[in-house]
Glycerol-3-phosphate dehydrogenase (Roseovarius phycicola), 528 residues
Amino acid sequence: MAPDFDLLIIGGGINGVGIARDAAGRGLSVCLAEMNDLGSATSGASTKLFHGGLRYLEYFEFRLVREALMEREVLLRAMPHISWPMRFVLPYHHEMRFDSETPTSKLLSYVMPWMKGRRPAWLIRLGLFIYDNLGGRDLLPATTSMRLQGRSEGAPLKPEFQKAYEYSDCWVEDSRLVVLNARDAEAKGASIRPRTKVTSATVEDGIWRVSVNDRVANETYDITAKMVVNAAGPWVGDVLRGTLKSNQQGGVRLVRGSHIVTRKLFDHDKSYFFQGIDGRIIFAIPYETDFTLIGTTDSDHADADERPQITEAEQSYLIEFINQYLAKSISEEDVVWTYSGVRPLYDDGAKSATATTREYVLNLDKSRGAAALHIFGGKITTYRKLAEAALEKVAGVFPQIDEAWTAGVALPGGDFPVDGFDALVDALQAEFMYLNERWAKRLVRAYGTEARDILGDAVTRDDLGADFGSDLTQREVEWLIHKEYARTADDVLWRRSKLGLRLREAQIQKLDNWMADYLRNSFPAAAE
């Protein structure tokens, strides 16, 4: 029996779509099944950073940090519309205390017992020196020291914080990253099937027969594949033992990360890296022009099927944490939105969620008589390297596959220089005179060079059709439906964009109703 596909990938998060893109580009036939919208779980609920993970140096995870640091600039070059450099301010005070359970703390306590949980300035500077040089830099500037008094970076902080270090990392629009990888995979021949749930799997003559349910059409059918890739994220254990009936060893630790969003807390474009006495760190990041993103927490999460939501304790923790630094305290009344995601970390037996490894683990499993690859852990910064590592495992089943190819290759809309964003905005405004600067910047940040394709032949704003608020037009929504797999207002407002922060309830309902009508007319079979 000839299978329908070489690879069936279960899971439409960043790992799944990254593997689909890489594999399709190497000549394999690929099908990806995601039970909900693409990027609707972990991959759309990150802290939205391409970063090495400065705090992981405390746990001596040098390989992971080095790989992530090296990846930052590779990814920047491939997606300068949805990712950009960012400077982070790390305030320091000599009386600050830190967690005593990290490997670094234990070593320091042994060598310098009089420090009693403190971090000397030289140790933090050493860590930042390693961070600057472990993975190499070309685009990103090095760490500097600064005096905070009289500077905009010091204005939001309590006066006792007079010194800080400033280092580089990068922002990324996480859920857009997922969709763009899926689009590129499809352009290279992959079949991308959101809202398609895998329900069971058997092996016949060395071939997987997998039953799936199309949740829109409510139809069940079978897909055959020579190999299955289990990239189900928080559900990786359920798929491994439940769906695929494997005896393969390996566990997942579900760790919930929660974030809060407030109105803008400071008047500059840099972020803050705040350190706590419990060993945790949080970021405070400029967000969507008018807001500040604060996160994240690390809490064990019992059940993947339980929708992650911030708890009162987590929200209080984030507010109390940041108030240790802010001159003007915030409260629950300042919070305009919250979101939470579940990280499916490899269970290494660590005592706490914070200490659990962020390394990814790939297990090749042939116990059922056909090959399956199970993906544990990973972080958004290393998704491309994880995909390459997965394809190395796949090569044992498909020795004819082509060489690795994704490094620096632009994602859709990303075919312009890293420093070319402003020029692209200016060009778009010059061509489409009705665009104001804010609107043009949003379009280029979301779509890059494809913003021009969305606007097409529209000479006036009215040519773009219905206006749903905050410059979201019918023309853009149609693009998101036909090109980016959107089917609901939530898909558009919270994953393809964050315009849900700006639209009123009546506007959201208008969009949802319009999309339902449009889908019924455009895809009548799916709407039945």
Remarks:
- The chain has 15 helices and 18 strands.
- The first strand starts at residue 5 and ends at 10.
